[in-house]
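Bit of a strange request maybe. I'm writing a small parser for structure token strings and I need a real example to test against, not something I typed by hand. Could someone generate the tokens for this chain?
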Amino acid sequence: MKQEPLKIPQATSKRLPLYYRFIQNFSNAGKKRVSSQELSEAMKIDSATIRRDFSHFGALGKKGYGYEVQHLLEFFRQTLDQDEETNVALIGVGSLGTAFLKYNFHKNHNTRIVVAFDTSATEDGTMMSNIPVFEPTKLEEKIQQYGIELVILTVPSRAAQEVTDRLIKTSVKGILNFTPVRLTVPDSIRIHTIDLSVELQTLIYSIKKDEETFTLRS
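Reply from user aminoacidic:
Good idea to test on real output. This should exercise your parser:
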């Protein structure tokens, strides 16, 4: 009988890369064992949340003993496929897109931008931060050539859905969307939207609520 895949809450899934990063820090510091409380203090996440997250994956540690750092490191490396590199395409090389190209992800992660697309590119392609940038007309051709499954989308809002409609017909399985547009895609494609203006407004609201709470307590 085929085993059903684990159903991990989305909030937990978003924290997995953070766990991996902080566990790497403990490993680099020579730490052999770590408790949920130590992770909590380092990550600023409630220890009960950490234990609940870890419980979705079975017995990763022992009560009263904690977690073996190397065991956790290997577990999250495999869970996050850290040993397998993923090629990423960037679509839209404006201010934000240029910052992504300069940073690139392979320095610290298993993902790397290998190709980009922008209307400013020349017919034969342009090199930016050692990454080839092509005209949008070559989108489908180059996505196939580079074996792209993940895309970072930083195009103007008016072009977001049009570009996405083209991506739907390719091998792309995931889109990290930095436009404020709520994109329409089939169930076969995952989308994570990061709207910077909404994130800032949420932060401002949280700050004001904290100030109100502090004033009431004073």
